[in-house]
Amino acid sequence: MLRTLLGVAKAGARMLLSTSPVRIKSFDRLNVVSLVVQAAYALKKGNTTRALILLGAASVAPRHKGLSYAVQGALTLNDVRKKLL
């Protein structure tokens, strides 16, 4: 599983650093990097499900910003729900 996560992270890094015709704005890059760092932190804490969800959001973030923000929001709402209930 760790190899898969590292492979996805490497592919994301290559995508961000590539000079593809699709222009990725610096804010979008920051969002992808943030998602990957959050996924690494979740993996370090032992929450592999959250890590995989965040890596999935990072993989679609450059093309579908709204979807990645919705995933982040859903994860945040789930955390708030767990803390309150």
List segments where confidence is low: pLDDT < 50 over at least 5 consecutive residues: none
**What is the count of β-strands?**
0
The value of Rg in angstroms is 13 Å
Order of helices and strands: HHHH
Proportion of helical residues: over 70%
Q: Assign the structural class, choosing from mainly alpha, mainly beta, alpha/beta, alpha+beta, or little secondary structure.
A: mainly alpha
Count of separate DSSP helical elements? 4
Shape: globular
The biggest beta sheet, please?
none
Mean pLDDT: 81
- The end-to-end distance, rounded to whole angstroms, is 31 Å
**Proportion of beta-strand residues:** under 5%
Describe the structure.
The chain is an all-alpha fold. The chain contains 4 helices and no strands. It has helices spanning 2-17, 26-45, 48-60, 65-84. It starts with a helix and ends with a helix.
